[in-house]
Amino acid sequence: MDDDDDDDVPQLSSHALAALQEFYSEQQQREGMKTSQGFNQYSVGSIEEDWQLSQFWYSDETASCLANEAVVAAGKGGRIACVSAPSVYQKLKEQDGKDFSVCILEYDRRFSVYGEEFIFYDYNHPLNLPENLLPHSFDIVIADPPYLSEECLQKTAETIKYLTKGKILLCTGAIMEEQAAKHLGVKICKFIPKHSRNLANEFRCYVNYASGLD
Is 120 in a helix, a strand, or coil? Predict the structure, then answer.
């Protein structure tokens, strides 16, 4: 074999190789945790991100903060809807036993493992919802539209306004501030949500009530 043939084999840069090794290491760690700890089906990351569905999970700290905010805002016996925000739903379920109820509206059918609390949701059909999901029946709606476009926000806003009794907690890009105010009447918070993987776009939270996120 000619030694020159080795030159034709594509080589990963040291940076790309390190990133790949880190990815496999994280996967092995997660698998190890599942087997050694007794798997918690509600832990953030128990269902892997699907980037093709524009899924990016919050950091554990952010998911906890948003879940706690929702519980306080919903009040005793409150109802919480998580629209395209599965990691917040998972954090809420870790608090199971507290005096609130929650459901998850999500396009990804992998989340149907959560049973009756899972409601299939496609933002392209914002009011295509089950009959038992009554209008204005949730004390707070938390939503994280999957795409940073006005069309996606506007359609998700239809769902939010249908479901909520009044309170809205929206998580989306900082570049969507004007559109968020236009479609939902929400204002930006001081709290800055973080994701488990760093995103290129700055994310922010928006609310239409006096929250603990300022």
Answer: strand
Give residue-wise pLDDT tens across range 55-100: 567 888 999 999 999 999 999 999 999 999 998 998 999 887 679 9
Is residue 66 within 8 Å of 141, Cβ to Cβ? no
Are 84 and 107 in contact by the 8 Å Cβ rule? The answer is: yes
- Determine how many CB atoms are found less than 10 A away from the CB of residue 198: 8
Contact 87, 108 (CB under 8 A): no
> What's the rounded Cα separation, in Å, for the pair 192 and 20?
28
**What does the pLDDT look like over 110-147, one tens digit per residue?**
889 889 999 999 999 999 999 999 999 999 999 999 99
Give yes or no for a contact between 171 and 193, defined as CB atoms under 8 angstroms apart. yes
pTM given for the model: 0.76
CB atoms within 10 A of CB 128: 11
Residue 140: beta bridge partners?
A: 80, 167
Interstrand relation of 78-83 and 187-188 (parallel, antiparallel or unpaired): unpaired
Contacts of 118 (CB under 8 A, 6+ apart): 103, 104, 106, 111, 112
C-alpha–C-alpha distance, residues 164 and 160, integer Å: 6
- For 83-114, the three-class secondary structure string (H helix, E strand, C coil) is ECCHHHHHHHHHCECECEEEEEEECCHHHHHH
